[in-house]
Design a protein that fits this description.
CATH architecture of one domain: 3-Layer(aba) Sandwich
Number of strands: 24
Strand content: 15-25%
Structural class: alpha+beta
């Protein structure tokens, strides 16, 4: 039996492949035509082939539950998510605007603090942020860049408008899945990719390497990727990017501060390290400067960094912009530094530390999404309409106890993309994480990781919560 989208439901939600009246959207025609030439069995065989390839290539992540580690593949649905070129061009401008303003914001709050003095962002909001690092006050990172690698989470609502869901400026993950999903698409649908005219993403490791070279002082710098170790959930990605760039993958055992420099142990003796792409959080980086209990950091590295003898990407302190309460102020931040309106809007956000918003949230918990300021991965969150009355009361009390630590947003019906379910297609909700590199200019990679909520009706796309991925095709 031929595979068909004939009975695919396009009602209720914005669908990325079909309009509400069932017409195919621009850029999706070649894919639909090719897939409907396949039988159900042929398409399912391609899906199973992709899943086996992910496992055989070792493209996995770890989930830890009650002390027990489980290695999983990030499920890939082989039906791509297509983003039209015009839509992407608008997103690119908006992301460049956002990253420019956020970089200026981070630099300001650790130096002149003009935005705090002018009352645009409340001073106590910054000083009570878990990710604000006093040790970074007065810091001037190489080339004035704080956020070198960013993954900004976007969603699309009922009317098809893209919105920013959250910013990820510390150690954004997932780019290896973006790259490998594309490689699998090339194997599974090579002729469709060519006919559709999809912008490439495979040069990301080369662009990342050039960015890391740019922030170094030496013309031929020694670059390493610093991982917390093999038990980290994203260890595959750390090793993958190091291999793709042709640089060393190191952990804390491989690096030492000696003679005022960061040095790497090698079979030839110690070598000075010029640039470190760090994949561990700020506070674990240096037990002498931040968390004294860290066993995965390098004692003294922060002092070397402050003296300009090593470059770090991302700069310590960038995590303050990941605070979900500060996220609510980003449109004001853009207006303050650039005198522009935000090109990509935020999701409507209620700030629980503000009295009127707090009152509204407490009265409407059952209709809202509640988020903790510094949680990630789908944790520390309540989806009001899907929660129990007991859970509503628990979160009401949490918010009353610490209103600074919570924001609330309306439930957004995320856009959908067809997914293969058994032998047919069903819509599943998606978000999009584009990756942005900030070196000699700001470079938005044309695509990103589309994360998909594989459980029917779910709005949680995180891989640790049962989500998967799709290849993202950006057309010219």
């Amino acid at each position: 039996m031929q595979f068909s989208f004939k009975n695919y439901d396009t009602e209720k939600f914005y669908d990325e492949m079909f309009s509400s009246d069932g017409r195919i959207r621009p850029g999706c025609e070649a894919f639909k035509q090719r897939v409907e030439q396949l039988t159900q069995n042929e398409l399912m065989n391609r899906q199973h082939t992709a899943e086996r390839a992910l496992m055989s290539m070792g493209i996995t992540f770890n989930v830890y539950s009650e002390g027990e580690g489980t290695e999983r593949i990030m499920p890939l649905d082989i039906i791509p998510r297509v983003v039209a070129g015009d839509d992407w061009n608008r997103l690119e401008k908006g992301l460049i605007q956002r990253i420019t303003a956020l970089n200026m914001f981070i630099d300001d709050i650790y130096n002149d603090q003009r935005i705090l003095d002018d009352g645009v962002v409340p001073r106590d909001l910054i000083e009570t942020s878990k990710c604000y690092l006093e040790a970074c006050k007065g810091l001037k990172p190489p080339k004035g860049i704080w956020c070198h690698i960013t993954g900004t989470d976007l969603i699309r609502g009922d009317d098809g408008t893209f919105m920013v869901l959250e910013d990820n400026l510390r150690c954004p993950s997932g780019v290896s899945y973006m790259l490998e999903n594309r490689e699998l698409s090339k194997q599974i649908f090579p002729e469709v990719l060519a006919r559709t005219g999809v912008r490439p993403v495979s040069d990301y490791p080369a662009r990342l390497f050039e960015m890391l070279k740019f922030i170094a002082d030496r013309p031929d710098p020694n670059i390493v990727v610093l991982t917390p170790g093999i038990y980290n959930s994203a260890y595959f990605e750390h090793s993958y990017l190091a291999q793709q760039m042709g640089v060393e993958l190191v952990d804390a055992r491989d690096l030492v501060v000696s003679g005022g420099y960061v040095k790497m142990r090698t079979t030839r003796g110690f070598e000075i390290v010029d640039v470190i792409y760090r994949r561990l959080d700020d506070t674990f980086l240096d037990p002498q400067a931040f968390n004294p209990h860290s066993l995965i950091g390098i004692p003294g590295i922060f002092d070397v960094y402050k003296k300009g003898r090593v470059a770090l990407a991302n700069a310590p302190g960038t995590g303050v912009a990941d605070d979900k309460v500060i996220y609510a102020y980003v449109p004001r931040i853009i207006k303050y530094y650039l005198d522009q309106e935000a090109l990509i809007p935020n999701v409507k956000t209620y700030i629980c530390r503000e009295d009127d918003d707090l009152k509204y949230v407490l009265e409407n918990v059952e209709n809202l999404v509640i988020k903790e300021a510094n949680e990630a991965g789908g944790y520390g969150m309540l989806i009001g309409p899907k929660a129990t009355k007991e859970e509503h009361e628990i979160f009401r009390q949490k918010i009353k106890d610490n209103p600074r630590n919570y924001i609330a947003q309306p439930v957004i019906s995320l856009s959908r993309v067809p997914c293969i379910v058994d032998d047919h297609a069903e819509g599943r909700h998606v978000d999009l994480r584009p990756y942005i590199l900030y070196g000699d200019g700001i470079n938005v990679i044309p695509g990103g990781l589309t994360r998909v909520a594989l459980r029917k009706g779910s709005l949680v796309v995180n891989s640790s919560q049962g989500g998967g991925g799709k290849d993202t095709w950006v057309t010219y």
